Amino acid sequence: MAGHANHCSTVGQKFVERFYQAMDKDRAQLANLYDGSATVIWNGNPIDMTQMAAFLGQMPPSLHLRDVIDAQPTDALGTPAILVAVTGKVEHGSRAAQPFSQSFLLLSEEPDNVLAWRIANDCFRLL
């Protein structure tokens, strides 16, 4: 059991690195991280996946500074899944850094492949 939890923690850490690298430097790469039917909530507002590229394109440049990353297995859905929670601060354009919280539910058909995990749910909130 500890090995499974450690694997999920490793996957979560690597996923967070990839996600925020793409968000802050190359948002076109974000599409590769989402499942086609993902649910995305941004500050309480649902974002349709068909509108995701336009939504991201209108956002100012960002810099995410992560303070805490937690990842845990949650295989209760019958599919390997990892719940990832992130807190930190984000700078958007020239605005002062604001605290944020973001959680992801990751799913994979290849759980041993760290790069095969995709976002099924993404919930972002400025605090």
Reconstruct the topology from this structure:
Blueprint lengths: L1 H24 L8 E9 L2 E3 L4 H7 L3 E12 L7 E12 L5 E10 L10 E9 L1
Parallel strand pairs: 1-6
Antiparallel strand pairs: 1-2, 3-4, 4-5, 5-6
Q: What is this structure, in a nutshell?
A:
This protein is an alpha+beta fold and 127 residues long.
What report would you give on this structure?
It is globular and about 45 Å long. The mean pLDDT is 91. Helices cover 24% and strands 43% of the residues. The protein has a 6-stranded mixed beta sheet, covered by helices on one side. It has one domain: Nuclear Transport Factor 2, Chain: A (Roll), CATH 3.10.450.50. It is of the alpha+beta class and 127 residues long.
Task: Give the key terms.
single chain; six-stranded mixed sheet; 127 residues; Nuclear Transport Factor 2, Chain: A; alpha+beta; globular
